[in-house]
Design goal:
This protein is mainly α. It has a domain of 44 residues. It has 4 helices and no strands.
Length: 174
């Protein structure tokens, strides 16, 4: 019993030494790289930035540069008025009711012989029976694979599909 207690004591001491070693390694690494959560101190003394100037007072509306002091709604009103004046000016230039389009010159067309009747060729599409079987068997195999039914029922279905596919190719080839 004393032997088991000594073993546990030694194991705890070994774990304690490993823990201390890991902590020491982390402390050394942290001292080398510094904190990632705190800003690093600059190595060179920074020059003091120039003091900021107070903001310039707004330009008076009576000054020649008073356009800068006007707000956005004033610009929207001015542009809307400009658009309306331009539309009115265009309407006045068009005149009363507008003019009728010039008459199109009439030309006498030469007699064109009627086109020959179109030939319509209708083809009847036929699918060999083996190809229809191949499609059905293929659907069955895919359904079994997607349902993860990889048992004894899959092998015969896959074999039938392969045989039907080969027959379909033989019948469909010219």
């Amino acid at each position: 019993m004393a032997n088991a207690g000594d073993e546990q004591q030694r194991e705890r001491q070994r774990q304690q030494r490993e823990l201390e070693e890991i902590r020491r390694n982390f402390a050394e690494t942290g001292a080398r790289t510094g904190s990632l959560f705190e800003p690093t101190e600059p190595e060179e003394p920074e020059r003091s930035p120039r003091p900021l100037l107070p903001p310039a007072p707004p330009v008076a509306a009576s000054s020649p540069l008073g356009i800068l002091a006007r707000s956005r709604w004033w610009w929207a009103v001015a542009l809307t008025l400009l658009f309306l004046v331009g539309g009115l000016f265009g309407w006045l230039l068009r005149g009363e009711g507008g003019s009728e389009p010039p008459p199109t010159p009439t030309t006498v067309a030469a007699a064109v012989p009627p086109a020959p009747p179109e030939t319509v060729i209708r083809t009847k599409t036929s699918v060999p029976e083996a190809c229809l079987d191949t499609a059905k068997l293929g659907d069955e195999v895919i359904a079994r694979l997607t349902r993860n039914q990889r048992d004894n029922r899959l092998f015969p279905a896959l074999r039938k599909y392969t045989i039907a596919s080969q027959a379909c190719r033989r019948e469909a080839s010219p």
